[in-house]
Design brief:
single chain; alpha/beta; 38% helix; globular
């Protein structure tokens, strides 16, 4: 089996298919500062040194923490670095995740991202649906998308993406504006969006799974562990390699605050799974 393609279009960029998700650089619960700021900055710098050119972030991580860390660690940015952010949520004083869909809230979120990242324009802004905090739920995104189009017309946004959305919401959004990428929960054992992944691949639209390694509860599977042992890899490397071979439009943003885990994640691009192992892994997600 051939090695999967290693880059994919994202906005005006063509970064490698393994990027970096900055969420875990904030404190516990993605709230407050990290326990070790120096290590967080080192992870970001190590990612860039290793060739990562896609960083996923949001100003509601912390809030403000991850964007300020990214700027402190990496500014001025490499010319080929694609920073993707998201809006549509906010945090209260206890760290709860709340919808922030009004025109004023969305505009302020874009301006906050620009300021804290030190950018004049955001390459891709994902609108995160918040009709259900934890999973996609139906509801109209027309009004917030119209606000993003106005911000785009002001030159503050280049491309618009979607997050935590249903197939209908994607289809409805595409009647209003081109969609650069979709970011939903998806991994080896959470496969509800299988058909959607293939649909967007046919359209040339990037699929960026969040929690590609299971999120706050890492993926657990005897088959995954056995295959990893046979390949001399970690289970998480196998899970990432499966995603890379699942579809050519999948772009990964595994997050970590550990320099060692960063290097392990990036090494998964060199891992090719033979057909019989893919079959065993595919069976894990059946019925998800």
């Amino acid at each position: 089996m051939s090695q999967p393609i290693l880059t994919y279009r994202l906005g005006d960029y063509q970064p490698g298919r393994i990027g970096f998700g900055a969420m875990q650089l904030a404190g516990p619960g993605v709230f407050g500062p990290p326990a070790d700021e120096a290590r967080a900055i080192q992870v970001l710098r190590d990612a860039i040194a290793a060739g990562v050119r896609h960083i996923d972030t949001s100003d509601f991580y912390g809030p403000h923490v991850t964007n300020q860390l990214i700027k402190k660690a990496l500014y001025p940015y490499p010319d080929d670095l694609c920073i993707v952010t998201k809006i549509g949520a906010r945090r209260d004083g206890q760290g709860n995740w709340l919808p922030a869909f009004s025109a004023d809230e969305l505009t302020r979120a874009v301006e906050d991202n620009l300021r804290n990242l030190g950018l004049e324009v955001l390459e891709v802004v994902n609108l995160r649906s918040m009709f259900d905090t934890h999973q996609p739920a139906e509801g109209s995104l027309d009004a917030p998308l119209e606000t993003l189009l106005k911000l785009q017309a002001r030159g503050l946004i280049r491309h618009i993406g979607l997050s935590n959305v249903t197939a209908k919401q994607i289809s409805d959004a595409q009647k209003i504006t081109p969609i650069a990428c979709v970011q939903n929960l998806y991994n080896l054992v959470n496969r509800r969006d299988d058909a959607l992944v293939d649909q967007l691949a046919a359209q040339g639209i990037a699929w960026v799974p969040f929690f590609p390694l299971g999120g706050f509860t890492p993926l657990q599977s005897d088959a995954l562990n056995q295959i990893a042992q046979l390949l001399g890899a970690t289970p998480m490397q196998v899970a990432l390699a499966w995603l890379l071979q699942r579809a050519p439009n999948i772009m990964l943003i595994p997050g970590t605050s550990s320099p060692q885990h960063l290097q392990e994640n990036l090494a998964s691009v060199r891992l090719t799974l033979p057909a019989e192992m893919l079959d065993r892994l595919n069976a894990i997600g059946q019925g998800s």
